[in-house]
Amino acid sequence: MKIESSELMNSSTPERVGVSFLHESADLHVTGAATYTDDIPELQGTVHVALGLSQKAHARLLNVNLDAVRQAPGVIAVLTVADIPAENNCGPIIHDDPILADGVVHYVGQPIYAVVAASHDQARRAARLGQVEYEELPAILTPQQAKQAQAGVLPPMHLSQGDAERALQSAPHRLKGTFQCNGQEQFYLEGQISYAVPKEYGAVHVWCSTQHPSEMQQLIAHALGVGAHKVQVECRRMGGGFGGKESQSALYACLSSICAVRLQRPVKLRLDRDDDFMITGKRHGFYYEYDIGYDDEGRLLGARLDMTANAGFSADLSGPVATRAICHFDNAYYLSDVEMSALCGRTNTQSNTAFRGFGGPQGALMMEVALDAIARRLGKDPLDVRRLNFYGKNERNVTPYDQVVEDNVIHELVAELEASSDYRERRRQVQAFNAASPVLKKGLALTPVKFGISFNVPAFNQAGALVHVYRDGTVLVNHGGTEMGQGLNTKVAQVVAHELGLNLDQVRVTATDTSKVANTSATAASTGTDLNGKAAQDAAAQIRRRLVDVAAQAFGVDQDQVRLANGLVQVAGQTLPFFELVEKAYQARVQLWSDGFYATPGLHWDSKRMKGHPFYYFSYGAAVAEVIIDTLTGESRLLRADVLHDVGQSINPALDIGQVEGAFIQGMGWLTSEELVWNAQGKLTTHAPSTYKIPAISDCPTDFRVQLFQNRNAMDSIHRSKAVGEPPLLLPFSVFNAIRDAVASVADYRREPELNAPATPEAILRAVTGLRRAQ
């Protein structure tokens, strides 16, 4: 579905949901007028913080001499772990993540001390002057090493369904091997930043670029040793998050607050890009050992999968990430007999964290790579093998974790994409091209997505909102979600405008603020609109009922004869402006504000057995990718991408298409160009745009066809829409598999290429060379 500029609706359009309204901050974004944390006017006396970082991957701190740091120009204070008032922890679940190193450092880049200076530049220069003596300790740097040492940040996880061993032993064919996918840097355009201002009686007001203000509030309170009621965290917008600001904004929020309260001065902590890379965690890289049984047609009979995630030095969110990886290995396919294990491997690297997809991509990728390999072994079209294994409608529809797939549309969606993309004919054309082209080779792949929507932890699936209606008929909304460019505030405003029958310009959404809506969940797991939209709808509906009651009483009619629409009230044959009804309600002392609340129903999860009903519903999608590779250089290019994605009954199609496009390119970057490299000493060497390559505009396909699948959520989500943030990131599996398809053509598709992710030019060239040597 292409959205033309003329189709983008303005605030006078009668419809409020299902319409492509402009992003509420679009003009501010393109003119540079949008206020991010670093744009907030600095208060008088503001000082700046920089961090002194470890230069060793694992070592005891024998001596930390900071005399030169304290004497540097502009330095006001230097803080170490001894200066933290209360708890030295910023871990979101387990208290194993120190704010500042305490006796031992666990990775190159771990903060040891904080420097407060008059300017940002002075703080950064001074932070480089510390003299640290280390006693080096053994370091684990890869998930394979962690697996061998059985070093985990958490106990191993296991899920079993049926009898995998029996199924494997009796299977006609078995596919065994290892695979690896690398991590990924979030590379948000706005880096980590926190601005803390001290208040009376030890309180603090913190502006923070974070996806989880309530968690920042709690961790700041614990670090200061005060109650949460003394900590106010506010976030108007982020310049991107992608999971990297869910838990890992905590270190900067805590340190800026500690410095602000200690010095009784406003304190800003803004990381430079290099420091951001060196300190913060990434997407978890995974190492896999797999054994899959299948029959002559390619039907999956049994599977055993052992996954080791590179967790980094602390737990962070690795447990939930590994859980979601296990719950997404099946992707869109029925597995009757399966055994899965996952170890969150402890390594001496940055503590890895949430990233768009949150383990789901790492789980499903292994399945998609395996199915292509099975198809090549059998000489079959991979789409036919996939279709044979899809979940059924009324049978073969129970996941390995015991949830019944009740809303399956993968058959219809893939059939539509197969036809619209002309998949079969293009498959023939690609093979003909390869037969005639000795150097350049093309590849084609179609991969589907089934992605579960809800937090792994049932308690997180709740949200609150406040809606205020003012006497002039305008509306102010506050909710617990955070805006990071994805359009959450736009959708929530649409929901409230629709509920109250208003024009969109009459509704304004304010900054997320822990003093307004308390105990909120992170804006993550693709649940932002689902949760906060429902909460805002609940609050607006309460006010609407009160206003309708006022109108019915004032005009002597039944409530069902009152209509609110287009900013007007129609009642008893009369039409009056919305604000006049509001004024009547005010004069009658009727409450014109309300709180709203929503909790996702029907969720339960047994974390020990890894069984239950963890997801409210599933989102579906599929993509076809056509690539070309140069077998002499290993370079690859995506020529065309056809995407069909299920967002249910879209609240805002333009925003949803933008999310699908962005997720596709970001996922493609993870699987092709974004390579994280640590040297033998454990230092991340790809810590800047010069060495870490996210996709550029030239990497996008010139032929990029994105359509929304016409569907209506079977579950009672907000206006029957579906989440869109994370699921489309799995669609570019098609790009990776198309590259593998192109490489396999070098050996006439008779051998499986040895190609892990990311498929960089070097990796592709090694795979091509390996196939040619094998021949």
Radius of gyration: 27 Å
What's the count of strands? 29
β-sheet strand percentage: 15-25%
Morphology call: globular
The protein's oligomeric status is: single chain
Mean pLDDT: 97
- How many separate helices? 19
The biggest sheet, with number of strands, parallel, antiparallel or mixed sense and barrel status, is:
8 strands, mixed
Structural class from helices and strands? alpha+beta
pLDDT below 50 for ≥5 consecutive residues: which ranges? 1-13
Strand order, sheet with most strands: 3-5-1-12-9-10-11-20
Indicate the percent of residues in helices.
25-40%
- Through-space gap between termini: 45 Å
Task: Give an overview of the whole structure.
It is a single chain. The strands form 7 sheets. The chain has an 8-stranded mixed sheet with strand order 3-5-1-12-9-10-11-20. The protein starts with 25 loop residues before the first helix and ends with a helix. The longest helix has 28 residues. With 775 residues, it is of the alpha+beta class. 29% of the residues lie in helices and 24% in strands. 56% of the residues are buried. It contains 19 helices and 29 strands. The N terminus is likely disordered. Helix 15 packs across helix 16 and helix 18 runs parallel beside helix 19.
Summary keywords:
19 helices; 775 residues; disordered N terminus; alpha+beta; eight-stranded mixed sheet
Secondary structure topology:
Elements: H1 26-31, E1 47-53, E2 59-65, H2 67-70, E3 75-79, E4 104-105, E5 111-117, H3 120-127, E6 131-136, H4 143-149, E7 157-161, H5 164-170, E8 173-181, E9 193-198, E10 204-208, H6 213-224, E11 231-235, H7 250-263, E12 267-270, H8 273-279, E13 286-294, E14 300-312, H9 318-326, E15 338-346, H10 360-378, H11 382-389, H12 410-420, H13 423-436, E16 440-453, E17 462-469, E18 475-479, H14 488-500, E19 507-509, E20 512-513, H15 528-555, E21 563-565, E22 568-571, E23 574-577, H16 578-587, E24 593-599, E25 604-606, E26 611-613, E27 617-630, E28 636-646, H17 653-672, E29 703-709, H18 733-744, H19 761-774
Parallel strand pairs: 1-12, 10-11, 14-15, 18-19, 28-29
Antiparallel strand pairs: 1-5, 2-4, 2-6, 3-5, 7-15, 8-13, 9-10, 9-12, 11-20, 13-14, 16-27, 17-18, 17-24, 21-22, 22-23, 25-26, 27-28
